[in-house]
From TrEMBL:
Identification of the protein by name: SnoaL-like domain-containing protein
One Pfam family here: SnoaL_2
Domain SnoaL-like: 12-113
Top-level taxonomy: Bacteria, Pseudomonadati, Pseudomonadota, Alphaproteobacteria, Rhodospirillales
Gene3D superfamilies: 3.10.450.50
Length: 143
């Protein structure tokens, strides 16, 4: 169990200090065939997974994860996080709240990482699309 716990904690610590200069550290934290999914991506393999975060740094200013809660049950763990960022060259700060579900290999490396968050948090910021999404949400809301 100590390999699982230490791998889980090391992975969380990596995300709280993620930077363009330390993306190579992912290779030691994940299995070579790691699977990653989020509302926009379905990736297999450590190099492709690392590229997701390289792209994040290319397109966003000051991206930052803050893990608010962690839970580990056997080889499955969950992180509740806040992700803050600004779009390149824009002053407005954005916040996405989400959860990561991670599955750990017996040696404590992450074999699968599934992010769960509402992509509408991003879509609502797009001028025309955002107005349409807000209208649909109002129509579907109770009360």
């Amino acid at each position: 169990m100590s390999d699982l716990r230490s791998g889980f904690e090391a992975y969380a610590a990596f995300f709280e200090r993620i930077a363009p200069g330390n993306l190579h550290e992912l290779d030691a934290l994940v299995t070579p065939d790691v699977r990653f999914t989020d509302p926009f991506n379905e990736i297999t393999g450590a190099p492709a997974y690392r590229q997701v975060y390289a792209h994040m740094f290319e397109t966003l200013d000051e991206p930052r994860f803050v893990i608010r809660t962690k839970a580990l049950d056997g080889a499955t763990g969950f992180y509740l996080w806040d992700f803050s960022f600004r779009r390149k060259g824009k002053p407005e700060q954005h916040l996405i709240v989400g959860t990561s579900e991670v599955h750990l290999a017996p040696d404590g490396r992450v074999s699968a990482h599934h992010d769960h968050w509402d992509a509408g948090q991003v879509y609502e910021k797009i001028p025309v699309l955002g107005a349409l999404i807000r209208l649909v949400k109002r129509k579907l809301a109770v009360g």
